[in-house]
Design goal:
11 strands; about 425 residues; 3 domains; Chitinase A, domain 3; about 20% strand; Triger factor/SurA peptide-binding fold; four-stranded antiparallel β-sheet; about 50% helix; alpha+beta
């Protein structure tokens, strides 16, 4: 009798639970969109949404999910179109290709090889969502290359013209710009695309990573590198972009900017006056004398340490002397800094160190929680004109590739059957 009673209780419990499990399963398989003859389920959408939220540092809240859902679904639809086109062209993406792509992402995140799946699971993300995205990206690159076969070659005359334009703008303002670009394929989609741009801007202003959103949603030339376009001169991207850039300071993001092709969100990373072409590769070996200041120093303390650093450095005839002075001052941060590429230094240090000759010391500069004086111990320079031309060639090829990608995807959208049901 006891066994019969236990079985009866279990049966009743299962009868109550199973319908709920069925409801969960049915809900996860509800259709979010149909792309030609393939279904994107709500589960697919939820898993991609989780990936975007985690990688963009967006809090996982209901309002954030509602705002992002339309563009996440649009990205899923585009990925499905890309994979369908790759299959039509019999383009294969192997498991090893996907693993190589995941390994690259691990390096960008500073993770050990093979730790990415665990990293994602710990944050509630199904690793398959990222694997699907990587597969789509790889297949699409191969599809575009096949379509553009023979049209990606950049001639010497094109490189010469690009270099001439750079020289013409010497002394004019330049901006280091990152971009999120959303194309407007048809006039009737203008308002919808602008709303997407405004939602992305709202997420950025709420703390989301501009670079990650660019990688997930931008269809610009530099989406794969977080939207970073490099240094942009006046006139390079059109009058609308010039006007917007002129109103921004480093660190600021523009309102959505309408160009002939679509909407742009622009982030100013840095600004400068165009220095012209500099094909020299300059590497310097540095030593420093470092004098600390208190965490919140007064102006008098800073001035006093600057004067002391200047006086001490005047007694140094070479780097060994400077390092000896640092040891005598009991400063553990004094000493050799090794060999560095001048172009890799922050702009403020580049301006100070660039003109120095071997054995020369810099004026005192504020560095972290202290005052530093730097001396060039060795300086090596060589002409790097070929590398400069190669950089221009890569940039022109990337621009041509991105333009073709937008045209190709636009054509696929126009001929596809897409039924959005969410």
């Amino acid at each position: 009798m006891k066994k019969v009673l236990v079985v009866s209780i279990l049966a009743a419990a299962l009868t109550a639970v199973v319908p709920n499990l069925d409801a969960v399963a049915q809900n996860s398989q509800r259709i979010a969109a149909v792309v030609n003859d393939e279904i994107i389920s709500l589960r697919d959408l939820e898993e991609r949404m989780a990936l975007v939220l985690v990688t963009s540092d967006i809090p996982d809240r209901g309002d954030a999910r509602r705002r992002l859902a339309p563009q996440v679904l649009r990205a899923l639809i585009d990925d499905r179109l890309k994979l369908q086109e790759a299959r039509r062209l019999d383009i294969q993406v192997s498991r090893q290709d996907i693993e190589n792509g995941l390994n690259q992402i691990e390096r960008q995140l500073g993770l050990r090889q093979g730790n990415l799946p665990q990293f994602l699971r710990e944050r509630g993300v199904n690793p398959q969502a990222l694997m699907d995205q990587v597969e789509s990206d790889l297949a699409w690159v191969r599809a575009i290359r096949r379509r553009m076969r023979g049209r990606l070659d950049i001639g010497d005359d094109e490189i010469d013209e690009a270099l001439a334009r750079i020289q013409e703008n010497v002394g004019k303002p330049e901006y280091r710009v990152a971009e999120i670009f959303l194309p407007v394929d048809r006039p009737d989609r203008d308002a919808e695309t602008r709303r997407v741009a405004e939602r992305l801007l709202g997420q950025i202003r709420s703390g989301a990573s501009f670079n990650v959103l660019a990688r997930n949603f931008s269809q610009g030339v530099a989406a794969a590198v977080g939207g970073d376009l490099g240094w942009i001169r006046e006139g390079q991207l059109g009058a609308e972009i010039d006007s917007a850039l002129g109103e921004l300071q480093p660190g600021q993001v523009s309102e959505p900017v309408r160009s002939a092709a679509g909407y742009h969100l622009l982030l100013i990373l840095d600004s400068r006056v165009n220095p012209g072409l500099d094909n020299r590769e300059v590497k310097v070996t540095l030593s420093q004398l470092f004098l600390p200041v208190s965490p919140n120093p007064s102006a008098q303390e800073v001035t006093s340490q600057q004067q002391l650093a200047r006086t001490m450095s005047e007694a140094a005839a070479n780097c060994e002397d400077l390092e000896t002075l640092g040891r005598e001052a009991g400063s553990p941060l004094s000493g050799s800094l090794g060999t560095v590429d001048v172009k890799a230094l922050p702009p403020n240090l580049r301006r100070v160190i660039g003109p120095l000759k071997v054995g020369q010391v810099s004026p005192p500069v504020r560095s972290g929680n202290g005052i530093a004086v730097l001396m060039v111990c060795d300086r090596q320079e060589h002409d790097n004109s070929d590398e400069g031309r190669l950089r221009i060639e890569r940039q022109l090829r990337a621009e041509r590739f991105a333009a073709e990608s937008r045209r190709y995807l636009r054509d696929l959208r126009r001929t596809a059957f897409v039924d959005v049901r969410r």
